Structures are given as structure tokens and as C-alpha cells.
């Protein structure tokens, strides 16, 4: 077994700033949810207003939307598209935990790119929450405005995979086989 010496690029501070920014986005989600909980008068420990309450009260509906946006930000889930009411396939949703993992790995090799993709992700998550709680939209449809966060997530996933391939030496081995 050989050893690997890992150097942290001087620009890695941008990656750490972006990771910290994602924590501020989490606090934003918490504040938004707290605001709507207060307006809707949904008591603790209830995580959501009941469907009947949300149907009768715009405040309770918006609280449920804010709570759902916050949960979506924090969760990791694997579900079938059929469970979501449409046809076929699987949906893998990964948000802040996977964001941080891919950001920190990708940033080892591509710190500025990773910080930029992380900023796109953070901005998308704020727009997602704002859209989800848009009183002019029904069924949380406004959240789709923030779906551009997936561009940041995909960029970070690609960067982290490339970083891992580079660290293992697989890239050179594959290139050598193709010659």
C-alpha cells in the first residue's frame, strides 16, 4: 500500500467560505419557517399544519411550504417517481449533506470552480425557498424557480468524481490503455 500526500490549494479558503455560506442559508430556512409558524399559529411540536387546516388558511399553507422547503434543504432521500404520482424511475434527492461532501472533495482539485458552483447552489436554494413560499403560487409550484441549484450540484458531483479519479490514478491508467 502506497501513501498519498495531499496538498490543500491556497484557494481552498473560497471553498470553506462557500461551505460556511450554506450554513447561513440553513439559518435563512430556519428563520423563514419560524416566521410562517408564528403567522400560522401552528404550535410546537407539530411539524406541519394538517391538510384540512392548510386548505382553509393561507398562513398555514405557507407555513407548510416553508417547512417543506427547509426539510428538502436538509434531507437525503431516494424515492420512486411513482411515489410522487408520475410514471417510472427513481429520484435521488440530496441536498446540504451531499452538497458539502461534493464541495469539499471537488475543492481539493478545483477550488475556484467548486466555490462558484457552491455559490450557484446556495443562491438556488434561497430562490427555491422564496418560490415555495410565494403566496401567488399553488402546490408549492414557485419552488421550481430555484431548481437551478441542480447545476451547481451536478458541477460539484463531476468535480468530486474527477478529483477521486485523479487521486486514485485511474485516469492515467485508463488513458494508458486507450493509447
Description of the molecule:
This protein is mostly helical. The protein has 7 helices and 2 strands; from the N terminus they run H-H-H-E-E-H-H-H-H. Helix 4 packs antiparallel against helix 5, helix 4 crosses helix 6 and helix 5 runs antiparallel to helix 6. The two termini are 27 Å apart. 31% of the residues are buried. About 3% of the residues have low confidence.
Key descriptive features of the protein:
mainly alpha, 7 helices, 2 strands, two-stranded antiparallel sheet, single chain, 179 residues
Task: Give me a quick take on this structure.
The protein is built from seven helices and two strands; from the N terminus they run αααββαααα.
**What radius of gyration results from the CA coordinates?**
20 Å
| Biggest sheet, spatial arrangement of strands | 1-2
N- and C-termini, Cα separation: 27 Å
Molecular shape = elongated
Mean pLDDT: 85
Order of SSEs, N→C? HHHEEHHHH
Continuous helix count:
7
Strand percentage lies at: 5-15%
Low-confidence stretches: 79-84
- State the assembly state of the protein chains: single chain
What are the SSEs and their pairings?
Elements: H1 12-40, H2 51-56, H3 58-74, E1 76-80, E2 90-94, H4 96-109, H5 111-132, H6 149-168, H7 170-178
Antiparallel strand pairs: 1-2
